[in-house]
Amino acid sequence: MALTKEQYDSIMLHYSRARARHRREQEQRRAEILRKIPAYRDAERAVSEQGIAALRQAVGSGAHLDAAALRQAAEKAKEEKRRLLTGAGYPADYLDLTYDCPDCRDTGYIGTEKCHCLRQQEISLLYHQSHVEELARTENFSTLSTRWYTGIDLNRFTAAARAAREFVRLFGKDYHNLYFYGTVGTGKSFLSVCIAHELIEKGHPVLYFSSSSLFEQLSSAAFDRNRAGGLAALQNDICSCDLLIIDDLGTELNSSFVATQLFSLINNRDMGRRATIISSNLSIEELQKRYSDRIFSRIASRYDIYQFSGPDIRYAKRLEQLQT
Ligand SMILES: [Zn+2]
Which of 55, 65, 164, 177 could be a cystine partner for 191, CB 3.0 to 4.6 Å? Predict the structure, then answer.
């Protein structure tokens, strides 16, 4: 699907603000260094003075500018500046320009190709993904707690949390899918949001859908003729993002359309070795009953399956808030 011009412009504005912010921060770091290391200014001055002197000489004598010698002198001065920085306990690259995304230097493009950070922003706008980033403020690995669990519930949650961290660590190196299932409020969505957050931070295009919203969008793309883009474009976006998360599978309205679409996207992503995480109240045997044998067998063979159990944590938390 395509962005509107306003959406595209707002993303480009975001990049230009990021570049301006990094330039400002670089200036601030430079001012700090000039204050703390007076010799640094001399080293800076030396570079430009050498350049001007070489230029004067070339103009005066009618000779060509000795570019190689000039480059050599610049290299030497750069070395001297780095030496001054590290000597005062700063990293050698302290005054280099930094970027939110070093891959595209905050331009959104690598050559003529869209950078992964631009693709994530497109996805985010097109599919209203801001709720994931909103959730991730309170639900992330640093707020993960096992205090709600005991006994077998604790063992299960600990195993799933370990798998979630491993999933993030090995992402892009090793191909894995996760199937989290169990009763309501036992931490399945929490771990999915943790993973989404970490991977978005690392610049991976991630799509996070509740199951009902995913199939509503697919069906309106398939059956609503007025909708721009169409089913193929939506399917392509869903199948090509680095990670797809389907939350609460089984809560959507059941139909043969859903079963077909679900198989098609699980299958396409698997063939492209693109990771998918599904959370559900349904055990995999129940998947077989609700959808089809082939969905069951694909998930049983291609997904790492983790069971969750215990009291409804969302309910327990709310209760605790009311009591304090
Ligand atoms: Zn980028």
Answer: 164
Summarize pLDDT for 256-309 with one digit per residue, the tens.
999 999 999 999 999 999 999 999 999 988 999 999 999 999 999 999 999 999
What's the total number of domains in the chain? 2
| Residue 172 domain-assigned (yes or no) | yes
pTM here is 0.73
Query: Could you tell me the distance, in angstroms and rounded to a whole number, from the CA of residue 110 to the centre of ligand 1?
Result: 8
Q: Please give all residues whose CB falls under 5 A of ion ligand 1, grouped by chain where several chains appear.
A: 101, 103-104, 115, 117
CA distance 158 to 162: 6
The size of the chain, in residues, is: 324
Same structural domain, 211 and 316: yes
Which residue type occupies 307? Q
Tens digit of each residue's pLDDT (9 = 90 or more) over 22-41: 999 999 999 999 999 998 98
The answer to whether residue 9 sits within a structural domain is yes
Domain boundary among 26, 57, 87: 87
Written as six digits, the tokens of 99 are: 């970027």
CA of 10 to the centre of ligand 1 (A): 16
Whose CA is closest to 95, among 26, 21, 23?
26
Q: Measured between alpha carbons, how far is 154 from 308 in angstroms, rounded to an integer?
A: 9
Residue 99 CA to ligand 1 center (angstroms) comes to 9
